[in-house]
Structures are given as structure tokens and as C-alpha cells.
Amino acid sequence: MEGFFNVRPVPAAREELFSHWRPEPPAIEEVPLTAAVGRVLAKPVRAQEDVPPYTRSTVDGYAVRAEDTFGATEALPALLDLVEDIRMGAVPQKRLAPGQASRIATGGMLPPGADAVVMVEHTEELDATSFAVLRPVAPGENVIRAGEDVAAGEELLPANSRLRPADIGALAALGITEVPVWRRPRVAVLSTGDEVVPPEQTPAPGQIRDSNSYSLGAAAQEAGGEAVYLGLVRDEYRAVLDGVRRGLEVADVVVLSGGSSVGVRDVAAQVLTDLGPPGVLVHGVALRPGKPVLIALCQGKPVFGLPGHPVSALVTFDLFVRPAIHRLLGLKERPRAGVRARLTRNLASAAGREDHVRVRLVETAEGFAAEPVLGKSGLLSTLVRADGTIVIPPAREGLRAGEEVEVYLF
Amino acid sequence: MEGFFNVRPVPAAREELFSHWRPEPPAIEEVPLTAAVGRVLAKPVRAQEDVPPYTRSTVDGYAVRAEDTFGATEALPALLDLVEDIRMGAVPQKRLAPGQASRIATGGMLPPGADAVVMVEHTEELDATSFAVLRPVAPGENVIRAGEDVAAGEELLPANSRLRPADIGALAALGITEVPVWRRPRVAVLSTGDEVVPPEQTPAPGQIRDSNSYSLGAAAQEAGGEAVYLGLVRDEYRAVLDGVRRGLEVADVVVLSGGSSVGVRDVAAQVLTDLGPPGVLVHGVALRPGKPVLIALCQGKPVFGLPGHPVSALVTFDLFVRPAIHRLLGLKERPRAGVRARLTRNLASAAGREDHVRVRLVETAEGFAAEPVLGKSGLLSTLVRADGTIVIPPAREGLRAGEEVEVYLF
Taking a contact as any Cβ pair under 8 Å apart, which residues of chain A between 196 and 215 contact chain B? Predict the structure, then answer.
């Protein structure tokens, strides 16, 4: 019986691929700004101009020379002459001389001579052409200077940034309406299994519908890739070889799933070895579920032989295929966000093995409880019923009921 | 000066909208399974048949009558007759009589009479037609029973489920290749501001490009909506009225941004009041940044007047507009996942006010540190440079350096 002696820890397995693989970046495509959220920038964006392009007020009030307000109090206000009402979107016409001020609204352009804005709440109108300042302002107060947000020449976003809503706004502010992004990496998905039929077909007795192609294709999309569905291949050397070759032709990454039986796994391992060098890099990982995963590099592209059990397939996708897609996009792995919860029961694990346990989150008076959804890794419904997963690290032999755990949501 | 006395706490502001609003569900559309990930199911999915459709083996080995193996040990194995090699995807031909077994691979169909599978590792082949079992199996061991994953008639997914990769796989297993999902809620986005020009235009002196329409449109897409860009409207009653009316005609939710000056805010408030009843429900929230948000219900649809400062606009979008989009989709708000980090400096806040502070995450030997990105809420670059946000709850007057905080990633 295969033990956990000759299998790799998860990080070492990933590193084995990453140290051998020199990914070829995907092509660059230009997308409209309105379709760029979530995409990954292919080139750094440098500001060609200042944002904002002029020094503007952040409040409603009066543009002033700050020194004219120094020492002002309610008892002894500074009296200033109003020389202009600055129109929004227009250039102020009057330069401020000492003792002068202009009325300005939020977003308005400061007139020459002004270096601060007094909020209207800290003033008192005296007549049509003069007002009193009740509190001093410092130079630069209540303004955003030209280029204070982004200065001309500054790198706003490095290449390989995943574009978030704020980044999209910043690109708009710079006038960038077509954005160079990496083409989504293509992920070819194939399933093996002589008992497996496509989902649109009614299975005959002894047959079952393909679900892995669709769950893995969806996972590839969620990871920022484009799924290329190559369908089913028979469990024999020639068919698997042809299928993986087709995948290598059309895609950047190939994911083969199925083959939970030893015979089928051996066929896949043989194909991936023959398509090297280097071929198979990892055969088995200290992981549950997902131990029998195959990781290979064929013709410069990563090829994953994921276990056929649907839960194992998705767990290994997350641990190995998703990072490979991110690497093609030049994305740094982000820290993983989780929900804190108390475990509801003891969970056993084996030292040296990383366990991924599906859980449901239940709201309690003391916060969230994480309730393990137990069941075989062949049961997709255990994932459907779960909200997320917890990880038992290799150094632990289990977790205790009541322990605080981090739940990673699906 | 407007205080925090007449403003609502964030949850109360949201509740004010939700208690008045009877959302009309979006239309239903059918999408192919390969385009359904992330979409929201419009109808419950009930299994029409058992998954798996037959009792199958989860290991490579021998299908047996479990009772024939009871008491088997290495010293005293049970001897069984091999009657068939079950082909994958085929129906077994032989019913097992006592003392008989059939060879079966992972995924194979159990023959009549069998109720368990012995792993090949726990057997010893004797000759072509007989083998020894070295360990007993219990009935049901190493098999997935017909319907054990999903039983015919069972509700697999309730309506309003956001479809995750595993759910997509489960739909495939049931033969569902066209999925009824809610049309993405349409979110009309308008910006006001007489100084604002579209991003493709070069701003004249005193003008600035529209960034909020694009950051908010992107946020609407990320929240599961479809952004409808209605462009710029002038800061005057008639223009804002026409703009919001257009939004109400074409969209399910209207988001107006800009109007940080009091005059402009007053115009927006007047328009939303006139488009009621009930019109404006919330005018000001105990929140920083984002205090001057307007929440209204006009002609049965939510209309949000978000502050013009770009950071405030995105913070209020997340707190009010995103939940409204989710409500249209029938989605339950999920628990929020965060990254634990230590705050690097003291942060002051006011009791009674909810503060959202942008932070960068820095990896340290002791885990992550959260480093506040300070800067005016008019500076979009503070968001671009941040990894996420931390929340200072209303009950706190600040956070201390070294405190553990939860960082919500952008």
C-alpha cells in the first residue's frame, strides 16, 4: 500500500513545478475600460499628466492666502475682501492680492495667489464684497494640490496588477479608456473514464455523467482563465496521449481529471512522462483529499492529472492549477482571507499530511461555528452543502472541538 | 455645521431602505452551464434522478458480499471465487452467490448480490479464478450507493444560490446544461459636476476627468450587476432630474455620484424627494468617509446619491449599493472574510461613527502588519496603493498600534 513516505508536501510540490517552469506570458489584448475590472494589466501605467490637473478645493468656502487668516478668532476675525465667485469648471479670473479672497465650491480651481480654502462654516458674510474669517487655515488646508493624487511621470500601477474598481477609476482619471491586459490563460479541461458520458446524454446503466470537466472549467474561469472544454477521452494510452496533445496545442495549461483507478493513473503518468522532458515532476502529494495528483511539465506547459473524485479534483485545482494560472498572469499570490469560527467537533488527521475539511458556517451568539460536512471525497454534494474549507496543517494531528479556525469560503 | 447627531448608523441606514423597498426580481434568463459560474440561480434545482445512478466502487478491488469477508485475517484469509471482470461503464453480468466476487475498478458498477468492495491492497491473488481476502469489509464499505450523493427528488440547490464551481459540477451530474439564472441587475451610473469631463476628453484648465462613473460601474459589475453608463449631468435641478429619470427607466438601481458641494447635494436631495414617494430615506450616515450619502426610493427603485470624493463613493457603494444588488438577486449576505493583521499605528475615531481606513498589508516574521494609507478621501491613489480596509466600529474611539485587526481585501 502506497504510504505518505514517497509523497511531497503541498508547498514542495508546487515549488517543484514552479522551479522548472518558465511560463510564456499570454498575449496582450486591449479591452475597454468598462470591461477591464478583474483583468490583469500587461504593462505598467505611468501618469502622463497630473491628477488632479489643477489645485482644487475639497470644501465649500473661500480661497484665501493662508497668511491672511493667521491669528483669526471668533472674537478677532480676519476681514477679507471678496473679489470673485469662481465658477465650477472655469478658470478663476482674479489673482488674489493680500487681504483678498474668492468664493469657491468643492472641486473648484484655486485662483493664483491662493494657497488654502476656509470652510464656509468658519466664516461670516458681512456684505456683498466682504466677510470675516473666524479660524485660521494653514497653507494647503482644504485643497488637493495639482498632482497630489498622481503626479505626472509617476507609476500609478505596476504591470501584473489585477484591476480593482479603484484602479479602474484611476485609469479613467488619467484618460486611459483602452487598457492593455493579458489574454486570459487558456485552460484545457479533459475528463477520462470509460464509464463517463457527457452531461447532455442520459447515462446507460453503469454509466455516469461527466461533472469534473464542468466544475474544473468553472474553477478555471474563477481563477481568471478561459476554459477550453475538450470533453471525454477513453482510458487508454493512445486516447489520453491524443487528448493531452490537443490540450497542449490550444491551451496554456492542461487539466486532465479522472483516473482514480490505479490502471488509469498509470496510463496518465505514462503519457505525461512520454510528453516530457521533464514530464512528470510530482506523483502524489501529502494531502487529503487529493493525494494521487500528478503534476507534469510537457512541451513547456504545465499539465495536471487531477484525481477523479470530484472533491479531490477541486481541492487539487485550488492548490496547484489556480497558482499556475496566476503565475501566467504574473499575479502575486494574495494573502488568503478567511472567516474566524469555532470548530464544532474533533477532527483527526495524520502528522505530515495537509487535510482540507469542508465545513458549513453556522451563526451563533458567540460568532460563527464551523460544522464539518463529513462524507466521501466522491460526494460532490458535500461541497455543495459546504460554505468553505478549513485546513489542518501537516504539523498537527488533528483539531479539537472549540478551537478557533479560519474558514476559507468557496 | 452638520454634526453626527442627525445622521444614521450604517446598519440603520441600510435597514431604512430595506424595510421600505419591495424589490422586483430581475427577469430569468437561461445560460449554458459553461457560463453559469458566479451567476445566481433563479429556481431551485431538484434532482430528477439518483446521483450516482448506480452503486459504484470508490476503490480498485473486488466486489464482494461483505459477510463472506467477516473474520478474515492475514493468518486466516477468506477465500473467494472470482466470477467476472467488471468492465468500466458496463453492466455486470453475474450475480454474486455466497463465496463469489468480481474484480472491479474505481467507478465500476457493483454486481447484484455485492454490497461492499475489498481494496486490492487487502487481497492476495491465488490463481486466475480465486483470491484471498486479508481483512474484512463492512456492508457499504468502499462504495457510493445509488443516490448517496444526490437522491432523486432531493433539492440540490435552493433558488438564489450563487453558483460555485462545485455547484456547476453538481448540475452537470444531473444533466442540467442550461441554467435558469437571474438577469444581472442593471445599475445606472451617473456623475454630476460642472467641472467634470468624460475620460476620453482632455480637460481644459479648471476641469477634471470623470473617474467615479468608472470605479462605480466596475464595483457594480463585481457585485454581480451590469453597469449602465449614463455619463455626466450638469449640476442643476432639471439635468439631474432628467438623468435620474433616465436611470429609473433603464435600470433596477440608480447611482448618482458627485455633488460634494452643499449646493449640488441640495439639488440631488430635491430631485430624489420630488421623484418619491417616499423619496429620500436617509440623508447622512455616521460614517467616515462617506457621511453625506443620500439613500432614496423613487418609483419603487433604490437611488443612491454617493459623495463625489472617489474614496467616499466606493466606501458607500460597498455599504449600501452592493447589498441592494445582492437583495435583487435574493442573495444572503455572506460572512465577510478578512486577513488578520497587526495595526502599525494608533488610529483615532469618534465614538458613534464607523470609520473605514485603507491599509497596506506587509508581511512580517510575526504575520501580517496593516499599515494605514493616510490621505484625503479625494485621493483615489490612496485606494490604489491599499490592499484592503479595516473598520473602526462606532463603539470604539480608535484602535491602538499592535491591535489585531481584520483586513477586508479589495
Answer: 196, 199-215
Please report the ipTM that was assigned to this predicted complex.
0.95
Contact (Cβ atoms closer than 8 angstroms) between residue B305 and residue B327: no
Q: Does B173 touch chain A (CB under 8 A)?
A: yes
C-alpha distances out from residue B380 to A148, B137, B153, B211, B212, Å: 10, 64, 52, 9, 10
Residues B347 and B321 reside in one and the same domain: no
Give the domain range for residue B45. 28-51+162-181
Cell of B167: 455547484
- What pairing do the DSSP bridges indicate for beta strands B388-392 and B354-364? antiparallel
Same domain, B200 and B242: yes
Q: Is A4 inside any structural domain?
A: no
Residue-level pLDDT, tens digit, chain B, 410 residues: 344 447 899 999 999 999 999 999 999 999 999 999 999 999 999 999 999 999 999 999 999 999 999 999 999 999 999 999 999 999 999 999 999 999 999 999 999 999 999 999 999 999 999 999 999 999 999 999 999 999 999 999 999 999 999 999 999 999 999 999 999 999 999 999 999 999 999 999 999 999 999 999 999 999 999 999 999 999 999 999 999 999 999 999 999 998 667 878 889 999 999 998 999 999 999 999 999 999 999 999 999 999 999 999 999 999 999 999 999 999 998 899 999 999 999 999 999 999 999 999 999 999 999 999 988 888 999 999 999 999 999 999 999 999 999 999 99
Residue B277 lies in a domain: yes
Residue A163 is part of a domain; what is its CATH number?
Answer: 3.90.105.10
A126 in B contact zone (CB under 8 Å): no
Sign of the torsion formed by the C-alpha atoms of B340, B345, B350 and B351: positive
CB-nearest partner of B53 from A58, A203, A407:
A203
- Please judge whether B165 and A106 are an interchain contact, meaning their C-beta atoms are less than 8 angstroms apart: no
